[in-house]
Specification:
The chain is 68% helix and 1% strand. The chain is mainly alpha-helical. It has a single domain, classed as Ammonium transporter fold, CATH 1.10.3430.10. Helix 8 runs parallel beside helix 10. It is globular.
Length: 425
């Protein structure tokens, strides 16, 4: 018996292609919950507080329904389009395979975490991106058109861009840096929201009639949930419980705080009083702008990026609403779109080699060359998203119709489309 025991002890342990790391897995499971928390209830409350009282439930319904629908579509095949292997040549454009998770087993691994955990984590990103677009057409789009647009857009816009950047596509090949979704999430959502706002036209009475948020308490509560959830959004994108995740969380927090203060200062100077809406919007601008850079920059980079986000996004918001008079209802493009563009470009400027990134240790890093790569990725995302979003909206307008009629809009979408009221008034 002793000989058998010694023999068994000397046998080599089995070697697996990827070894499960319980710490990494626990962190990404936690991050998955945090990112879903950003949409439900964070974004849903943030957006529903910003609209008028007659449209509160419509926004909550849109966010909730999008979360449900995207979850099913992600399992059915969109995950495969984003992260599957498209084969020689085609793989640089789109992924294929793993439909209905046919290639996923219980022991399938993605790095040091189970692939099913990676699948769920990425699903939460796919959920929040079309949900962000809701802010561009809030208070005036048919619910059926919202669902069809979100579903088709997920397949034709989100999945390809996600594959280009994170699924081994052509942007990844040229060294494009997008740690947590500056292009994949924020530029995509911002551009689509702007196209939708233009195509649907302004809300009745805009900009002459004041359309103030109906409940700022809900807005602040939702915004606070977004801030907390963003730690999972950016920190979880390290896909490990390591130094990179810790630094991503740190710079995310710094950028949000500085963005809030910068926006507040701009409002105070321009209008004589700082607003609660302004400080929380500055927070979202800081968070969206640091997102692509969060795994590549240090604390000083996070501080400067947050400062620029607060100032530049504030100026862009004023310009779009007051000069161009485009009714991007909840400022999706000037906050998320402009923030995503700004953060993606500034990643090249504030990139710290010590943070990891895509440059070899013995390679001389060139801000100019990396800026060119970042600019290429920004332009490609804007053009693809803008053109495809326009086509989808045009087709839906010709078939289902995009906008509710004047009577429904005046009555409010809560009653007109859902036969319910969010408040007894």
């Amino acid at each position: 018996m002793l000989r058998v025991f010694i023999f068994l002890c000397l046998l080599p342990l089995p070697v697996f292609a990827s070894e499960l790391d319980k710490g990494d897995t626990a962190w990404i499971i936690t991050s998955t919950a945090l990112v879903l928390f950003m949409t439900l209830p964070g974004l849903a409350l943030f957006y529903s507080g910003l609209v008028r009282v007659k449209n509160v439930l419509s926004v909550l319904m849109q966010c909730f329904a999008i979360a449900c629908m995207v979850s099913v579509l992600w399992m059915f095949g969109v995950y495969g389009l984003a992260f599957g292997d498209g084969g020689e040549g085609l793989n640089k454009i789109i992924g294929l395979g793993n439909f209905m998770l046919s290639d996923l087993a219980l022991d399938s691994m993605s790095g040091s975490i189970p692939e099913i955990v990676f699948f769920m984590f990425q699903m939460t990103f796919a959920i929040i991106t079309p949900a962000l677009i809701v802010g561009g057409f809030a208070e005036r789009m048919r619910f059926s058109s919202v669902l069809w647009f979100s579903a088709i857009w997920l397949v034709l816009v989100y999945a390809p861009v996600c594959h280009w950047v994170w699924g081994g596509g052509w942007l990844a090949d040229i060294g494009f840096m997008d740690f947590a979704g500056g292009a994949v999430v924020h530029i995509n959502a911002g551009v689509a929201a702007l196209i939708a706002a233009i195509m649907l036209g302004n809300r009745r009475g805009f900009p002459e009639t004041p359309m103030a948020p109906h409940n700022m308490t809900i807005v602040v509560a939702g915004a606070s949930m977004l801030w907390v959830g963003w730690f999972g959004f950016n920190g979880g994108s390290a896909l490990a419980a390591d130094n990179s995740a810790g630094m991503a969380i740190a710079v995310t927090h710094i950028s949000a705080a500085v963005g809030s203060l910068a926006w507040m200062a701009c409002e105070w100077i321009k209008f004589g009083k700082p607003s609660v809406l302004g400080i929380v919007t500055g927070m979202v601008a800081g968070l969206g702008t640091i997102t692509p850079a969060s795994g590549y920059v240090g604390p000083i980079g996070g501080l400067v990026i947050g400062l620029l986000a607060g100032v530049i996004c504030f100026v862009c918001t004023q310009y779009i609403k007051r000069v161009l008079k485009i009714d991007d209802s909840l400022d999706v493009f000037p906050v998320h779109g402009v923030g995503g563009i700004l953060g993606t470009l500034l990643t090249a400027v504030f990139y710290a080699k010590s943070m990891g990134g895509l440059q070899a240790e013995d390679e001389v890093y060139s801000i100019a060359s990396q800026f060119g790569v970042q600019f290429c990725g920004v332009v490609a995302t804007i053009v693809w998203c803008g053109v495809i979003s326009f086509i989808i909206l045009k087709l839906l307008d010709k078939t289902l119709g995009l906008r509710v009629d004047d009577e429904q809009e005046t009555e409010g979408l809560d009653i007109a489309l859902h036969n319910e009221r969010g408040y007894n008034i």
